[in-house]
Specification:
heterodimer, A: 182 residues, alpha+beta, 3-stranded antiparallel beta sheet, two-stranded antiparallel sheet, B: 327 residues, mainly alpha, 12 helices, 0% strand, globular, binds iron/sulfur cluster
Amino acid sequence: MLKGLVHQVKIIWTQIVSLWLVFLHLFHKADTVEYPEVKPHTFPRWRGRIILTRDPDGEERCVACNLCAVACPVDCIALQKTEDEDGRWYPEFFRINFSRCIMCGFCEEACPTHAIQLTPDFEMAEYVRQDMVWEKEHMLIDGTGKYHDYNFYRVAGKAIGGKDKGEARNELPPTDRRSLLP
Amino acid sequence: MFSLQVGSLLNVALILGTVLVSAALLIWVERRFLGFFNDRLGPNRVGPFGILQSVADVIKLITKEDWTPPFADKLTFVVAPIIIPIVMLLSFAMIPFAPDVGIIDMNIGLLFVMAMAGLASYSAMLGGLASNNKFSLLGGLRAAGQMISYEVFMGISILGVVILSDSFSLRGIVEAQADGWYVIPQFIGFIVFMVAALAESHRWPFDLPEGEAEIISGFNTEYSGMKFGLFFVGEYIGMLLMACLIPVLFFGGWHAPFGLGFGNPIVSGLFWMAVKVGAFVIFFILVRAALARPRYDQLMSYGWLVMLPLSLINLLITGAIVLSQGS
Ligand code: SF4
Ligand code: SF4
């Protein structure tokens, strides 16, 4: 009987304590960020809208290797490879369906040329669903994005117009296998 | 006819308008305060401080599809949501807001309010039954069980007040508190009445009839559009009614605390009544924000094994003291 009574008093006491503690929250500052007026702080590596960047020489970085399309878990990247007269590969079209993209950043990790990058821009709402599908001309920017001095063709062995085999950075001239000289 | 006296047309119109408007505003007030208690801001976009949120809500409810499920019992389904706002508004006729402000002063006012509060449970019960849906039925059953058990000691808990004031008229009760609020001699009665009032108006933590987590809104699962809106508004009017009843029964109604009354007794009375009602409304919201819902068996055993004996003891002691004083 007494034990039960003590138990009941304890129950009521805990309820009163939680009422008081919650009441004190009336005087706390709200955690809400009032979004359109106050922008939340996004960090440089925030995974938001996707861009395609150019190398320091102002050429398109993307070499249409399709690695991003393979890595994408929701298959929202579509592209077609083509070549220019210099032998540089580039995408004929490059299309991302942002209504399917989950902003996972796998494409950025997969890309060997730092071409595809995610940015801190998260305001991607559209009124028309078709506007969520972005083409290359929408995504291609003039700058280098997050990586300023990487140029794929300057370090890769592929020969393009104006740069032959063996002329890349840290690359030895090709070995002449028919010569007897060392 | 248009003078300010109990029952005048002016009074009726003012009180009805105020109650309806404040019931709609309560939706916003509640969401706003819940926000503050949760360290959020709550709705603050529509109009200044979001005060027009209720208007937006009402427009939304009215323009929504008002769907009656084909498997429902049509007539009962439509009647059920109408009951609760009507009976709650009828109860407001009894509430004395200030000297000369009130709709009617009946000598059985308290009984009338209790009877109307009892009728309100038909709304939940019929709604659950007519929906022909097992979750709604469970909600309706819970509402019925909860109402029956909590109404018992709700009635008993206010008998102490009736004994002390020697009157069933709410105006009489308030006038009898001119020199001392009943919350002091009737503290146990107050606590019991408060718990019962929460349970009567289906307020959290006693919202078992509409437990959203387990029976998906219970008796109003099948309701949509303005039919749901009527349930909703009815419950807010019920909450307002309980927040008015507690000051009237235990906190001296329109009497100012510590002799802080000022000027015209009607103005001062209305002011203090509004302050007290507001305080209890905010307390109800605080309870909603702070306390967890009990299990149904806990609810029942708490009602019958703790609250009922408590209110009976309170009644016995009050009666004994009044008798021994030989008044
Ligand atoms: S962020 Fe993820 S989902 Fe979006 S395009 Fe890149 S790989 Fe696909
Ligand atoms: S964006 Fe990068 S990974 Fe994708 S195709 Fe172009 S170079 Fe390859």
